[in-house]
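User: For my dataset I need records formatted as: sequence, then structure tokens, nothing else. Please produce one.
Assistant:
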Amino acid sequence: MSRVSWGMLFFLVTIILTGCSSDDDFSGRTFTIVDNSTLLETKEQMNMQEEDTRRVLLSLTFDSGEVTINSNQNLTGEYETFDDRLEITLSDDKGDVTLVFSDLASSVEKNVKYTAEISDIDYSLSDTGGLAQLEFMASDNTEGMMVSFEENTE
């Protein structure tokens, strides 16, 4: 009887610890977020397309729940992953911006780690400042846009 109890206890503790641990595949990595709508359909066209013609939206560095937008302001914030969703929140004294990427999936494309959809952009800015550089995300109608996460290995 005591063997079953210890075995059952070990099993439950293992299940609980496994469920509580976060599998953060983003931590320690840098990604360039690229608009997929500008990518061309056929491989021949993609081979002819120069890398500079891509529409780069953001460059992000992730580290244990914190995210930095790689720009001249180096804005920082927090990120969380939930199943197939990535949520990034940036705040400063001028306001805050939340970007939600849904349908996050691994990609088989060369140089692309993930694909996702920008499903929500929520911002409240009281003034132009560091976060104002992200206002284009809402004004350019990027909600619903499919994007690629290209990993920077440099």
